[in-house]
Amino acid sequence: MPLSVRISRRAALRGALATPFLAAPALAETWPSRPVRLVIPFGAGGSVDVVGRLLAEKLGSFLGQPVMIDNRPGGATSIGAVHVARSAPDGYTLFYGTPATQIINPSLLPNLQYDPDKDLVATGSVMRAPNLLLVHPSLGVRDIAGLVALAKQRPGALTYASSSVGSSNHLSGEMLCRLADIQMLHVPYRGISQYGPELLAGRVHMCFGTISDMLKLSENGGLHRVAVTSEKRNPLLPDVPTVGETVPGFEATAYNYIAVPSGTPRPIIMAVNAAFNRALADPHVAGRMVETGLEPLATDTPEQASATILSERARWKQVIEAAGIKLEG
């Protein structure tokens, strides 16, 4: 009798240990069994929100469950990030990540309310968003070589606008200053609605911005489309050179990705990865993104996304520290 009891306990223990491994694949097979929320850390109507809604619509069409957009702006994406980090790790609360959350904020903000390494886990990539540099014609330059030469002649006299301190268009300017060994004055505004009219009027000399925004701004204003910030020329603007063609090593694109709360089971992570990769590979979705100057990334694994976050963080940390940029928070 004692022997049979011991055997029964061992069998029960083996069964208990096996349960998580048996349950994990089942989780992926049933995900999603109810609506999924995609938290976007920006307000409705912006470029990230537009892409998020495009993906959500496509995901809902083949997942059999709606993917609902939950806009939670503020705190340089911290409000949305904290909400997702504290959510159940079950695959039903997803985070749309941009450079701020796990790439820029660790170097820019001293008191983050989340751990950028431990609280969120990347499931895969979404896209890279290049910037386009517009220059007011009053400067008399049409290319990066001319701009750099003028900046060297007039150190600190040329101004460039951005949507905020620490934004992609701000850091693109700082990277150009660092790699080209020039000095320009950064003038932060609160979005393109403020700095657009200032650039058109010539009260600020230049700005970096998303390709779609800059194309609209330069349609009727006579602004020069000088260069794109991606590694390669953008298909939407094949005649516009890259900054890197003149300034070696320059590449500045906003990396976007999807993340889930830490502790999410691996099968769920892989299911989320597969779903987004399928949506991003859809010709309609990819076409909509490309026609606005974006670069969809439809094949990355969770490991590749995590590695990209770390490499981007190291690269931008150098730029931020060299420029002495810091925010309270």
Quick structural overview:
The protein is α/β, with parallel strands linked by helices and 329 residues long.
- How many helices? 11
Which fold does the CATH topology of the largest domain refer to?
A: D-Maltodextrin-Binding Protein, domain 2
In sequence order, what are the helices and strands, one letter per element?
A: HEHEHEHEHEHEHEHEEHHEH
**What's the CATH first level of the largest domain?**
Alpha Beta
- Give the full name of the CATH homologous superfamily of the largest domain: Bordetella uptake gene, domain 1
The CATH architecture assignment of the largest domain turns out to be 3-Layer(aba) Sandwich
Report the radius of gyration as a whole number of Å: 23 Å
Shape: globular
**N-end to C-end Cα span:** 66 Å
Describe this structure in words.
Residues 1-28 form the signal peptide. This is Tripartite tricarboxylate transporter substrate binding protein. Keywords: Signal. The chain folds into two domains: 33-129 and 253-323, Bordetella uptake gene, domain 1 (D-Maltodextrin-Binding Protein, domain 2, 3-Layer(aba) Sandwich), CATH 3.40.190; 130-245, Periplasmic binding protein-like II (D-Maltodextrin-Binding Protein, domain 2), CATH 3.40.190. The protein contains eleven helices and ten strands. It is globular, with a radius of gyration of 23 Å. The protein is α/β, with parallel strands linked by helices. The protein is 46% helix and 18% strand. Helix 1 (2-30) packs parallel to helix 9 (266-281), helix 2 (47-63) crosses helix 9 and helix 6 crosses helix 11. Helix 6 (168-180) links the parallel strand 5 and strand 6 (185-188).
